Amino acid sequence: MLPTPLANIPRPVRIWCWTFLLILGMPSALFAADLQISDARMRLLPGDIPAAGYFTLTNTGETDNTLIGADSASFGNVTIHQSVSKNGVSSMQHVDQLTVAAGEQVEFAPGGYHLMLMKRKHPIAVGDEIEVTLLLGNGQRQNVKFRAGAPTTQ
Amino acid sequence: MRQCIMTVFVSLWLMGCGEQTWQTKDLSGLMPPLAFNLVDENGNDVTADQYLGRSTLLFFGFTHCPDICPTTLARLDAATQRLKETDRDDIQVLFVSVDPRRDDPASLRAYTDAFGPQFIGLTGNKAALDELTRRYRVTYGYGEEDGNGNYEVSHSSAVFAFNEQGKARVLIRDSDPMDAVVADLKTLVDDG
Predict the structure, then answer these.
(1) What 3-state DSSP class applies to B114?
(2) Alpha helices in chain B (DSSP H)
(3) CA torsion angle for A11, A17, A18, A24 (degrees, to 10)?
(4) Which partner for A152 in A17, B74, B88, B160 could form a disulfide, CB atoms 3.0-4.6 Å apart?
(5) Residues B77/B102, Cβ–Cβ less than 8 Å
(6) ipTM exceeding 0.85, yes/no
């Protein structure tokens, strides 16, 4: 049997080490916002045609959380939409709110959920980072930077 | 050995003689040839005859559609990028807006130009759009206006592919794998 190296470490140092490891292992939700947003990107279309916003929404918390809306200083109107295809016919539906259960992930991706960003207030170029605020059911407001991309952005 | 070579030879010969095998939905004989009277993105009255001589992909949509329409157009762009250049030049994508109220020729042109030179915007009045959509048995419709004057448009999400003589060949859907779309575009170009 191998000797346990821990036994050679003085007791106060050992306690400190264990405490440190315990903190490391704690759920990150205690330190971070419950809803994490990643891969935020914007599909930019020419002229005054609305843009689409895509991202991944992850609820790292222990309670359900709800996305109830979004706004941006760069757009006059931002809404949550969902594209639906039924019997070969596509349409968009307005989404009033979207609940992300604890530990769950929701993709805002082409052909499904997306932000519809209308009435651009200033010119936006491919590569620009545009701030959008996501409004959550618990009253939190989360600022997210979306990278503007070409019309073929997926 | 000789028998084996013979079998391969006969198979190849039969394949060459037979009908094309498509990987997306075969429409041959099921849909009428390409025909329409519409307005192009420069404001000119146009008919389908003017677009013969190249393979045509026909898609119904509208520009105030930031999700589905660009996704389909981007897929078609990605598929054509995988063809060799001469084949790519033989394909045009006709984007027919079923929302003429918002889509004047100028905004249509701005929209299709953003995807590439092979994308051409067309639209028309209700009678012309109804005639065309009925011809290919697709529907479109408008939702209620919201407080900002915005309204949704429902439209067919599939792409109708015609060979260079305007004969209906396949229906490409968003669910079709990219490899199948690329293979069928290649067959479509060779079909002419």
Answers:
(1) coil
(2) 2-17, 68-81, 85-88, 105-113, 126-135, 178-191
(3) 170
(4) B74
(5) no
(6) no
Residues 19-78 of A with CB under 8 A from B: 43, 45-52, 77
Do residues B190 and B33 make contact, with C-beta atoms less than 8 angstroms apart? no
Say if residue B104 is exposed, middle or buried (CB neighbours under 10 Å; 0-12, 13-18, 19+): middle
Cβ–Cβ of A47/B158 closer than 8 Å? no
Between the alpha carbon of residue B105 and those of residues A152, B92, B124, the distances in Å are 21, 18, 10
Q: In angstroms, rounded to a whole number, what is the distance separating the alpha carbons of residues B64 and B99?
A: 9
Residue B4 counted as an annotated binding residue: no
Mean pLDDT of chain A: 86
* pTM, to two decimals: 0.81
Res B7: pLDDT: 61
Disruptive mutation site among A48, A77, A113, A152 for chain B (greatest number of B CBs within 10 Å): A152
**Average pLDDT of adjacent 10-residue blocks, chain B of 192 residues:** 59 54 94 97 97 97 93 94 95 97 94 94 97 96 87 93 97 95 96 77
Is residue B21 classed as helix, strand or coil in its secondary structure?
coil
Tell me if chain B has a CB within 8 Å of the CB of A152. yes
- Are B138 and A83 within 8 A, CB to CB? no
- B12/chain A closest Cα distance in angstroms: 36
Proportion of chain B in helix, strand, coil states, percent, rounded to 5:
35, 20, 40
Q: Domains, chain A, ranges and CATH?
A: 30-149 (2.60.40.1890)
Q: Are B76 and B162 in contact (CB under 8 A)?
A: no
Which residue ranges form the domains of chain B, and what is each CATH number? 23-191 (3.40.30.10)
- pLDDT at res. A3: 52
